[in-house]
Amino acid sequence: MDRGDDAVPIAELLDERRHLLDVAYWMLGNSVEAESVIDATYRRWYALSDPVRARITTPRSWLAKVAGSICLARLTLPDRNPTRTGQDHTTRTAQPAAETPGTLEQQISGVLLDALDALSPTERAAFVLNDVFGMAPGAVADIVRQSEPECTELADRARRSLRARRARPTPPQQHDALARALHEACTTQDEALLASLLAPDATAFFDGGGKVRALVKPVHGNTHVARSLLTLLARHPRTALDTHSVNGRTGLLVRYDHQVVAIISLDVAGPHIVQVWIILNPDKLRSWNRPSAPPGPPRPHNNPAGQPGD
After folding, report:
1. Residue 263: left if φ>0, alpha if ψ -120 to 50, beta else—which one?
2. I need a surface site. Which of 88, 122, 169, 178 has the fewest CB within 10 A?
3. pLDDT reported for residue 97
């Protein structure tokens, strides 16, 4: 007999299904396939015996892991065609939680989805599950069937590939000018100026590494990206924002009490910023906060001319 205390609020059920659809759509780029994956995921859930289901303490995580595994298996099919049709962009009507009205397909640009299609199945899975949905490293490793360090390397390769495909060559002077303008807009909290610097389909990725309460999902669209940045960089007497070289190009450095707490790097295409990468993970910021070695005593200048030093 079913127990009444096992009932789940309908809002939670709908939010769970929407989350699973988002995972599947990001991984496959096709809403029809995503629906099919979620149907298969729930079939596996109901195929479990009652005692086995009762031992699953976090059903949503279990379902997401199963959905991710099914998606990865489909990505590796040799005859899979990743092409998206116009119908694919209008099939789903559910909107992601905490997002503005509109389907996920309308919020993710075709350019970004095309770039994801260019990744290997394991790179795409590692990037989507880690960067987009903030899944625990162990869960990502189980889905991809590789070790956690290998999954980290896969996600890193995916990020590099995405950046290379989205950002067309831009003269350094133009990149620097946009970075300085972004700094000005963030410093003055000028949302209109900030949005004008971003491409209409700009995307911001927040890497908290599970160590800080950063946004889990990427933010899409110049207005939403501008608002998320201004919220993150809200004025505070102990916070400082400066331009600084990041990955060989001008980016932004955020300090709190003189400690680097965020690094912001930019991908530029033409006159706009197309991607913003915000590193908040304390582990990745350690090298920025290492104290400089104190200067040693002056070395004696007793080497013969032309001889190398020690």
Report:
1. beta
2. 169
3. 35
Instruction: Sheet with 249-256: list strands edge to edge.
Output: 219-220, 198-207, 272-279, 259-269, 249-256, 239-246
Nearest to 22 by CA among 85, 78, 105: 105
Return the axis-axis angle of helices 172-188 and 222-232, rounded to nearest 10°: 60
Phi-psi region of 109 (alpha: psi -120 to 50; beta: other; left: phi over 0): beta
Amino acid at position 205, single letter: F
Q: Are strands 259-269 and 249-256 parallel, antiparallel or unpaired?
A: antiparallel
Helix (H, G, I), strand (E, B) or coil at 79: coil
Question: Cα–Cα distance between 251 and 247 in angstroms, integer?
Answer: 8
- Matching residue, tokens 């809403």: 31
Domains of the chain in start order, with CATH, are 10-99+107-165 (1.20.140.160), 170-287 (3.10.450.50)
The reply to whether the predicted model has a pTM over 0.85 is no
| pLDDT tens digits for range 7-37 | 777 888 888 999 999 999 999 988 899 999 9
Residue spans of beta strands (DSSP E) within 32-168: none
Q: Cβ(167)–Cβ(267) under 8 Å? A: yes
**Which residues, in sequence order, are CB contacts of 269 under 8 Å at separation 6+?**
166, 167, 168, 170, 199
Q: Could you say which residues of the chain have pLDDT below 70?
A: 1-6, 80-111, 164-169, 292-310
> Length of the chain, please?
310
How far apart CA 39 and CA 143 sit, in angstroms, is 18
Annotate 168-205 with b (16+ C-beta within 10 A) or e (fewer).
eebeeeebbebbebbbebbeeebeeebbebbbebbbbb
Convert the pLDDT of each residue in 82-136 to its tens digit.
555 444 433 333 333 333 334 555 556 666 777 788 788 999 999 889 888 888 8
